[in-house]
Amino acid sequence: QVHLVESGGGLVQPGGSLRLSCAASGSIFSIYNMGWYRQAPGKQREWVAVITSAFSTNYADSVKGRLANARDNAKNTVVLQMNSLKPDDSAVYYCRAPVNATTHYWGQGTPVTVSS
Q1: Which residues contact 110 (CB under 8 A, 6 or more apart)?
Q2: For residue 25, what are the contacts with CB-CB under 8 A and spacing of at least 6?
Q3: In DSSP terms, which residues pair with 110 in a beta bridge?
Q4: Which of 5, 21, 38, 109 is in Cβ range 3.0-4.6 Å of 92 for a Cys bridge?
Q5: pLDDT per residue as tens digits for the range 13-42
Q6: Which residues partner with 84 through β-bridges?
Q7: d(CA 10, CA 24)
């Protein structure tokens, strides 16, 4: 089984930055395409970013240019650097490991609040 633990969330002012981490254990981390999702109160969970096992990245249009995803396979972690944060970025951020088409593992999330 894959266990994921997010960390790094908190309160930040608009325009500020946060660095989120997702630590994985329990399986072979390096083969997974690690995704980031977020869910704000009253809204559906939305995809934010992904970094593949080949280290390629993609981002949602809403965060493109402000977020950067990286991974360190030796440490079994992925990192989401969040810059120029906006109030609309406030949400609980989750990482996901899609082991296969039907088996996806999620962390418990780390909350991000962007407010002045």
Answers
A1: 6, 7, 8, 9, 20, 92, 93
A2: 2, 3, 76
A3: 93
A4: 109
A5: 999 999 999 999 977 888 899 999 999 999
A6: none
A7: 20
